[in-house]
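hey
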């Protein structure tokens, strides 16, 4: 349920970034979201809304961690997977950090390029090991 919610949130974040679509507009027209179980749908919407609300902060943290990578140079899917995981690590979850990172890596394998999972893992692992995860930070 939670992985599917994360995948749906990623799809909404991608659409928001590419087309500027509002989360509420997506909620009413995104068929995969509409047929998802209510708990999955609510989790996905909560994540997507939370990431969008914290986007400037998440992007600053991401740029700080991803040495030599400007946001514009990152693939849009990778960038949004990282935003989603950082949001969950920092603001939204009682899920252990290792689980959040593992979920992000698995989602990167499914939706990203051949190297996405390695990139996502490296950035998030570095973020975790630099002590930057403090819930509610």
């Amino acid at each position: 349920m939670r992985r599917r919610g994360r995948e749906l949130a990623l799809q909404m974040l991608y659409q928001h970034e590419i087309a500027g679509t509002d989360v509420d507009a997506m909620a009413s027209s995104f068929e995969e979201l509409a047929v998802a179980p209510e708990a999955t749908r609510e989790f996905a919407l909560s994540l997507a809304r939370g990431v969008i609300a914290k986007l400037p902060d998440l992007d600053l943290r991401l740029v700080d961690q991803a040495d030599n990578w400007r946001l514009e140079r990152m693939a849009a899917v990778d960038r949004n997977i990282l935003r989603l995981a950082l949001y969950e690590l920092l603001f939204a979850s009682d899920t252990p950090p290792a689980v959040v990172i593992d979920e992000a890596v698995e989602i990167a394998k499914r939706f990203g390029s051949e190297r996405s999972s390695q990139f996502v893992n490296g950035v998030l692992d570095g973020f975790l090991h630099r002590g930057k995860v403090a819930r509610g930070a």
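The chain has one domain: 2-129. The chain has eight helices and no strands.
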